[in-house]
């Protein structure tokens, strides 16, 4: 019964992270004319999570014939790996520096990126918890994943 709650939390965190990363990309494109690959990777991570959630929720509810335990494991493991790589790489890019800059847009992009790092870490933790429930369900042979 906890899986639907985890899925809802994953969706919420993913949408928040996508908004933050999208804003950072927008500001980076305005100021620098391009955005860093690390920020773009975090956009991919959010989109991967949305695709994963669409499969994990809708295939189970509406097309159970295509709901496969190995696909579920693949999406879950992929999400954990991508969220881990995403927030760590963004943290390495931003660093521990202060977000004070000469331009207000750069300051806001830095602060938004730091918020995206925190949301990414929480999202990774939630995906790890749901992965543990999925692994436990697959090992036990139950359909509760």
Structure description:
The protein is an all-alpha fold and 145 residues long. The chain has one domain (2-140). It has helices spanning 2-32, 37-62, 69-94, 104-140. Helix 1 (2-32) runs antiparallel to helix 4 (104-140), helix 2 runs antiparallel to helix 3 and helix 3 (69-94) runs antiparallel to helix 4 (104-140). The radius of gyration is 17 Å and the shape is elongated.
Spell out the key features of this protein:
single chain; 145 residues; mainly alpha
Ordered list of secondary-structure elements with their pairings:
Blueprint: H1 2-32, H2 37-62, H3 69-94, H4 104-140
Structural domains: how many:
1
Round the Cα radius of gyration to an integer and report it. Answer: 17 Å
- The strand count comes to 0
Taken in chain order, the helices and strands follow as: HHHH
Shape: elongated
Low-confidence stretches: none
- What percentage of amino acids are in beta strands? under 5%
- The average pLDDT value, as a whole number, equals 91
The percent of residues in helical segments reads: over 70%
**C-alpha end-to-end distance:** 9 Å
**Oligomeric state of shown chains:** single chain
Q: Give the biggest beta sheet.
A: none
- Summed up, the helix count is 4
Q: Which structural category do the helix and sheet elements fall into? A: mainly alpha
């Amino acid at each position: 019964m906890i899986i639907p709650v985890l899925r809802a939390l994953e969706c919420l965190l993913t949408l928040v992270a996508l908004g933050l990363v999208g804003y950072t990309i927008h500001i980076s494109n305005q100021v620098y004319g391009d955005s860093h690959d690390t920020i773009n990777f975090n956009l991919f991570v959010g989109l991967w999570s949305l695709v994963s959630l669409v499969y994990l929720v809708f295939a189970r509810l509406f097309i159970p014939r295509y709901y496969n335990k190995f696909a579920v494991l693949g999406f879950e493991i992929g999400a954990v790996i991508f969220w881990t790589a995403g927030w760590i790489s963004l943290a390495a890019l931003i660093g521990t520096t202060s977000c004070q800059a000469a331009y207000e847009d750069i300051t806001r992009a830095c602060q938004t990126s730091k918020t995206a790092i925190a949301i990414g870490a929480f999202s990774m933790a939630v995906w790890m918890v749901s992965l543990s429930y999925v692994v436990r369900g697959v090992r036990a042979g139950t359909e509760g994943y």
